[in-house]
Amino acid sequence: MSDLLPAILALLPIVVVAVFLVGMRLPAAKAMPLAYLSVVLVALFYWQISAVQVAAASVNGLVVTASLLYIIFGAILLLNTLSESGGLSVIRRGFVEITPDRRVQVIIVAWLFGSFIEGSAGFGTPAAVCVPLLVGLGFPAKAAVVSGMLIQCTPVSFGAVGTPILFGVKTGLGGSESVTAYAASIGLNDVSELLPIIGHRVAILHALIGTLVPLLVVSILTRYFGPSGRWRDGLQLWRFALFAAVAMTIPYVIISHPRVLGPEFPSLLGSLVGLAIVIPAAKRGFLLPAGPAWDFADSSDWDDSWRGGAEVKLKDSSVNLSTRMAWTPYLLIATLLVVSRLPGLPLGVWLKTFQIPGDADLLANLFGSSVSVKPVQWLYLPGTVFLIASCCAMILHRMRGDAVKRSVSRSFVMVRSASVALVFSVPMVQVFINSVGGRAGLDSMPDVLAGVVADFAGTAWPAFSSLIGGVGAFVAGSNTISNMMFSQFQFTVAQQINADPLWVVALQAVGGAAGNVICVHNVVAACAVVGFVGREGEVIRLTALMFVYYIAMAGMLGMLLAI
Q1: In Å, how far from its chain's centre is CA 191?
Q2: H helix and E strand count, the chain
Q3: Residues 382, 340: contact at Cβ < 8 Å?
Q4: How confident is the model at residue 372, as a pLDDT?
């Protein structure tokens, strides 16, 4: 029992989140302070981490929180701006012209457009863009949040132009003699040359699992938010849903091949190809079931638990807005995100030079601890892109001063409601991750948990490796950080049991992507942009269905491919 005690205590913050947030349905603003308190107590009194280390990790979390709130504010401001300008009304009419079927709309907006935003920006940005857009189209707030979160799995491994692979896995494996030796044994020079191979395997796994994601999204939508509450209403769309899936996943896999483009562009370009194929097909009714288009019940009949605090009014524009002009803010967002993140273009490098504080050394080894706080590159954050798009919308849509004032003031009120949960959830994550170097001589809490699972699994480790990646992302809120924490661990365990280490690391990355659908601070952020704060546990109860499916499928594929 004493051998298991560190793992049990390391699991405590996760259990607190599960019990209070998901089980008891407490708002994140109440559950996350308890989780933070639990991880601090464990770190101080069992891991015997210094108070200085805990304080530095907490400050780091607060800095990350400030960045998240900045992104959330920008997304909320764009929503309120388009609501006031009449742009949302025009966009909604455009979608109805494609199809009035809500199941098809959610596939186009969440699965395809969301994957494009993920491929260009990552870090939870798709929810900040797509969730308010779905609400503007007439989706209940809860349905919009759930749908926006459910798709944050397949495209995530190649989000932000491949960051989880090119930075997360590379950092996790870098500097390891065993990895370098393995690369040499297969005729490669270093870790960098392994990344395209791992990335392609990640894409194959995601394509095999993710092909059912659009069908699962529409089925969950119809079961929990439909007037009849039936899975069958979603399953009726199976042919179109599978078509929309492979329209993205087939080019996604091809693009990921080392001899094509590699890990930077599968989500970014695969989703664009999908949009180009699926939108014309939907207009023509290709593979759509016969009968009336599926829709929600009248909003007066919605369950009160579906509604958010953000009132999205579909006002008509005071000027004659064209569809192109209404979409201009979103097109501007997509363009700016892509050009600022494409490797080789100078804009991203230049934007990163604007940071707070200007001297990164000021935050290195904060308070004399091992924690270094990364300066906030405020111009590079997606929040700045959202603010630019909002300002352009105000000008291009010729908004009056009183309308601008209403959108700004309402945005400040909405973002304030998300701040309490994030102020505790992100520092909790940072203390959890940085729990190393204590007098107890223990590895970090994530490593202790992973080690116990590895000892339990033995030669069946590939069935569990994606679960570790998923738990890492659930806690850390990032596929990239999960890969940084566990890639070397996964590689070492694979070699010990004579499994293929590259497949096992790929399973880690896939699990880390799946963990995003239940990540607490991603859910808090998605809820905040439509005023659904305080109901995060309700969302995770539904998105957990996708997480279980993804991890189970990855585990089965792991046993087939890695052993």
Answers
A1: 26
A2: 26, 0
A3: no
A4: 84
Query: What gap in Å lies between CA 462 and CA 497, rounded to an integer?
Result: 10
Phi, psi of 376 (to 5 degrees): -85, 115
Average pLDDT over every residue of 8-34: 87
Under DSSP, the state recorded for 133 is H
The confidence score (pLDDT) of residue 535 equals 87
Cβ pair 529, 79 in contact under 8 A: yes
Task: Please tell me the distance from the alpha carbon of residue 147 to that of residue 510, in angstroms, as a whole number.
Answer: 20
Task: Provide CB contacts within 8 A for 482, sequence distance 6+.
Answer: 168, 469, 470, 472, 473, 476, 508, 511, 512, 515
Task: Tell me which DSSP letter residue 263 carries.
Answer: T
DSSP assignment of 6-69, as one string? HHHHHHHHHHHIIIIIIIS---HHHHHHHHHHHHHHHHHHTS---HHHHHHHHHHHHHHHHHHH
Distances (CA, A) of 375 to 60, 220, 356: 10, 40, 5
Q: Determine the Cα–Cα distance for residues 47 and 36; give it in Å rounded to an integer.
A: 15
Residue type, 287: L
User: Which neighbouring-strand residues pair with 376?
Assistant: 356
Q: Which residue bears the tokens 């709130």?
A: 69
Distance, CA of 528 to CA of 61 (rounded, Å): 19
Burial class (CB in 10 A: 0-12, 13-18, 19+), 98: middle
Could you say which DSSP state residue 121 is in?
T
Helix (H, G, I), strand (E, B) or coil at 99: coil
Omega cis (within 30) before 357: yes
Half-sphere exposure of 176 (CA within 13 A, CB side): 21
Measured CA to CA, the distance from residue 169 to residue 355 in angstroms comes to 26
Task: List, in sequence order, every residue forming a beta bridge with 356; answer none if it has no partner.
Answer: 376
Tokens of 234: 């979603």
For the chain, give the mean pLDDT.
88
Q: What are phi and psi of 354, to 5 degrees?
A: -90, 100
Q: Output the pLDDT for position 123.
A: 65
The pLDDT tens digits of the residues spanning 63-94 come to 888 887 888 788 778 878 888 888 878 877 78
How big is the chain, counted in residues? 563
Q: What is the C-alpha radius of gyration for the chain, rounded to an integer number of angstroms?
A: 23
pLDDT score recorded for residue 374: 83
Percent of the chain at pLDDT above 70? 97
Q: Which residues of 132-158 are buried (b: 16+ CB within 10 A; e: fewer)?
A: bbbbbbbbbbbbbbbbbbbbbbbbbbb
Report the predicted TM-score, pTM, of the whole model to 2 decimal places.
Answer: 0.84
- By the 10 Å C-beta count (0-12 exposed, 13-18 middle, 19+ buried), 259 is classed as exposed
Neighbours of 550 (CB within 10 A): 27
Q: Looking at 341-382, which runs of residues are DSSP E strands?
A: none
Decide if 42 contacts 10 (C-beta within 8 A). Answer: yes
